[in-house]
Amino acid sequence: MCLGIPGRIVEFVDPTRHLAKAEVSGVRRTINVGLVLPDGLDVGDWVLIHVGFALSKIDEAEAERTTRFLVELGEAYEQELTQIAESRIE
After folding, report:
1. Is there a contact between 4 and 10 (Cβ–Cβ < 8 Å)?
2. Cα separation of 13 and 10, whole Å?
């Protein structure tokens, strides 16, 4: 199952390559934010992440609702978190 996971931008790693660090359930990973940069993106903003790419910018309330729903999914969510923890975009 492919899921979009909410993550909060904590820093911009390489603006030229559209790379930022996002925190997802306590795990910090570098992601590509090129798809959401035209909408404007700042540290502290929430994005929906899939396979290392921020797909859309969301607000904090949507991030909380989505996370609650994903936690209810159980194993699929845990698998996605494992993939995020093991991913490396440099």
Report:
1. no
2. 10
pLDDT digits (tens, 9 = 90+) for 36-89: 998 899 999 999 998 889 999 999 999 999 888 888 877 777 777 777 777 666
Return d(Cα 13, Cα 18) in angstroms, integer.
8
User: Domain map of the chain by residue range?
Assistant: 5-86
Residue type, position 62, single letter: E
Dig out the tokens for 30 from the structure.
């570098």
CA 47 to chain centre: 5
pTM of the model: 0.82
CATH topology of domain 5-86: SH3 type barrels. (2.30.30)
Closest alpha carbon to 19 in 63, 61, 47: 47
**The amino acid at 43:** V
For residue 90, pLDDT beyond 70: no
